């Protein structure tokens, strides 16, 4: 029952890296199409390699996806495949990460990523009514100078960028390192977000708040280690985009039943569920929600509250947020018992 309810519920995705939506089959076919030699002998062998012990190991595999993409059209197609999945899962608004640095280092201009993502979002809106936007990240383990160079490349296209984030290997690269560049991003009127408190401790979340003034935190699960931080996050209701299956796949929690999302919700943190890299972690948004509902104490009311939190935490316009809330409300009104006791 709850499974069906979650499957059909209108959803908002706020944390998804587009190359992380490349199924082994897509990656394999693209490699062959582009004559890129990969070290796996079959799709099954490649799929079997979607297993990781930590974030760093995962990033290596994630990079393989970027290597088989050889044209703007390839990247556009990867986006459109993801948008079709959004239709299947009733994801009505999605904010998507894709780094430009990787492709710039391969010799492509920044327009390669910007046009592919921008074009795909226009077509997603026209074909499916899906809204959202593109959020490149600075690759933190490449350091502050590279981030500044990325901003210099991206700033002429700022109208096509919804937000800028900070991703990749976290430990050793606190947000404070990128303080100056993010000040410029904010001055340009672009939303600022960052992965923080995924593998690294709560200090990194403080740094994201104080040094680069984030409007939303990707992951943030390690906030629970610092009571003062939890208090601050509850007071400010800063959104945290939690990715449960990612956390299990990258061994932050051994089992889903150990995930601290129920506790985060209980403490009044502004949490919502997202997928991060759905193909690699074998769970899109629906599967992440179902897994939390089936393996933890989070109730149907909790799932609904987080669906609302995702709408509120998005960078959608006021008007679009109203529509998304109204779509959710309509859906809930057809599932009468589920609408009680949940605040907007
Ligand atoms: N890039 C793709 N997925 C990521 C994650 N979970 N953390 C940091 N960077 C990422
Ligand atoms: Zn992520």
- Bulk shape: globular
Strand content: 5-15%
Number of strands: 9
Q: Which residues form runs of ≥5 with pLDDT under 50? A: 338-342
How many helical stretches?
16
SSE run: HEHHHHEHHEEHEHEHEHEHHEHHH
Tally the structural domains. Answer: 1
Largest sheet: 6 strands, parallel
Specify Rg, calculated over alpha carbons.
19 Å
Cofactors and ligands present? adenine, zinc ion
Which architecture name does CATH use? Alpha-Beta Barrel
Mean pLDDT value: 96
Helix content: 40-55%
How would you name the CATH homologous superfamily? Answer: Metal-dependent hydrolases
Describe this structure in words.
With 344 residues, the protein is an alpha/beta fold. The protein has a single domain (2-336), classed as TIM Barrel. It contains 16 helices and 9 strands. The protein has helices at residues 2-8, 24-33, 43-48, 55-68, 72-89, 101-105, 111-128, 144-154, 179-187, 202-210, 227-236, 244-249, 261-266, 285-295, 300-313, 318-333; strands at 11-17, 91-97, 131-135, 137-139, 163-167, 191-196, 216-219, 240-242, 271-273. The strands form 2 sheets. The chain has a 6-stranded parallel beta sheet with strand order 4-5-6-7-8-9. The longest helix has 18 residues, at 72-89. It is globular and about 55 Å long. The model is unreliable at 338-342 (pLDDT under 50). Residues 17, 20, 55, 62, 167-168, 195, 198, 246, 276-277 line the site of adenine.
